[in-house]
Design goal:
The protein is mostly beta strands. Helices cover 0% and strands 55% of the residues. It has one domain.
Length: 80
């Protein structure tokens, strides 16, 4: 688990996102990773009323068998 204080003063290298793509609605954000200098990728995930911050690599695109709901990721490098 990562504390928000661990992010202070670190350089953001890039952002990766994971989305739910529903057939009849707009995609919705599932996860977001902030790639931080000295920490690596930090995953942001909402759980109930809170926010979970964990070190972990982003997952690749996946299709769920029960609903044709692919998840994809987009990586956006930050400017130096």
């Amino acid at each position: 688990m990562v504390n928000a204080e661990d992010l202070i003063g670190r350089r953001l290298l890039k952002v990766t996102t994971s989305w739910h793509h529903y057939q009849e609605t707009e995609p919705s954000l599932l996860h977001m990773w902030l790639h931080m200098d000295g920490l690596g990728p930090v995953r942001f995930h909402t759980r109930g009323d809170g926010l979970s911050l964990e070190i972990g690599e982003p997952h690749g695109p996946t299709t769920w068998a029960n609903a044709a709901t692919p998840r994809s990721r987009t990586t956006c490098p930050t400017s130096p």
